[in-house]
């Protein structure tokens, strides 16, 4: 008997913490994965519209990336290197600069703050405060930036914030674009409180923003809103941090999600798919004049994940040497939106929003989103919900998914919506 056949859910309920979540919505024991598919121990295959919460933009076990990784491991390449200089890191830095930054006219120093997105955010906030000598950070309603204390302080979700167990301070939430249901907002209010000595508002060190709020419900900021925000920050000597942890690496079409707006943030955070293969890696990108760190002032044991450097380099060379992937992502985003149009035309109380290959189907009856994902799982599709009330079915398919696979998954989702609504009306 193999270990796979000996396993069942009791292993996890007995030994693993109650904090686990995704496994509760997807009650299967997964074993192998390739491309857009993941297979459980019983041989059932699932089409993956989740992609590791956006960490697998190039699919599971991408063969080009796997080949580079196996070659590196087989020659005993460095695995753990802290912040020592290694061949793998140097090749990544050269490739990232020549194929990502320079073609976009961007000039950033690269900091490796630790293995995850929240490490990148913590480093960005800490550096902004060091540079400016100020403490306050402006964040936005429904934002999500991570689970460590600094990142939680600029996160909107009340359940996650409550888990901190202490007051989360030095951050002020402001309304994200379209927060007031279609009423066009500008930044006059922001400037007024900055100028009013009676407002009780401390001049902030930085503003941190997601161009598309994934966990917050696929809330998409308009390009003109982002430009207005960037302009205000520049005029008022406030640093602009764009959190591109989930929306970067091509998720919205362009490599960086802020490219469409034509803005240049002071600091950018990247993680999830920057490693290419699903291995931990995070970057904090810093305008050179802001790089005022003292050696060792911010560090971490796992900030030099060399196998991730290898697969990150391979991913950039394979997918970002030209604009083909970007073009395909934007085209597939239109296909998803068209499929959502058809679903919304059949049913009242539904709408949709998104950019590129992050798309959300929004339910007025929040419980229908969860039920839709539950039915879809039974049909062999992985999709999750997001939003403050889990009212959005959020799609994050691998960017490399074929058009046939995309159509197959959208058909399953459409059927699942129909069944969930039929149950409610029965």
TrEMBL record:
Tell me the route in metabolism or biology where this protein functions.
Amine and polyamine biosynthesis; ectoine biosynthesis; L-ectoine from L-aspartate 4-semialdehyde: step 1/3
User: Domain of life of the organism in this record?
Assistant: Bacteria
Query: According to the UniProt entry, what is the EC number of this protein?
Result: 2.6.1.76
Keywords of this entry: Aminotransferase, Pyridoxal phosphate, Transferase
Pfam hit, one: Aminotran_3
Query: InterPro entries, from UniProt?
Result: Aminotrans_3 (IPR005814), Aminotrans_3_PPA_site (IPR049704), Dat (IPR004637), Ectoine_EctB (IPR012773), PyrdxlP-dep_Trfase (IPR015424), PyrdxlP-dep_Trfase_major (IPR015421), PyrdxlP-dep_Trfase_small (IPR015422)
User: Which GO molecular function terms does the record list?
Assistant: diaminobutyrate-2-oxoglutarate transaminase activity
Q: Which family does the similarity line name?
A: Belongs to the class-III pyridoxal-phosphate-dependent aminotransferase family.
Q: What is the protein name stated in its UniProt record?
A: Diaminobutyrate--2-oxoglutarate transaminase
